Amino acid sequence: MLSKNVLKIGTVLMSVGLVAPAYAGSSDTSGTMATDDAMKSDTDKLGDKIATQYNEAKEFTFEQKEDFLAWVDEKSDQLGDQYDDVSARVKQDSAEAVDELAEAWDSASDDLSDAMADAKDASADTWEDVKVNTLNALEDAQKAISDSQSAE
Length: 152
What we know:
Largest sheet: none
Shape: elongated
Distance between the termini: 41 Å
Number of strands: 0
């Protein structure tokens, strides 16, 4: 059975997933400044939620390692989906923007894969350091996508 932390994190992630598409298909440029401000505000709020999720994830103990790995794997999959969405939108801007996004994502994704491998091999003695490194890699992957979104 999943721990309370995993369930809380999953609930927050699902909430975020339902709110994000609200801006996806907007082609109305009237009030663009207001829309941009609203999106920045939403991005800031999303950043706060993500920070909270990562803080909650820090509470996983070594005994909850499998739950932690499942949470990281799920978050990684969600980031991959988010990357695909952002990449499709950036593609409309320029080839250079696509290349920059791909480079940032590939680097962050590789680091995350390495961190997940280390987490799978972690012992009770190395757990806290490995867990922090994994969360940092996950956060860096999120930033690679978020920074590209805000640069549009």
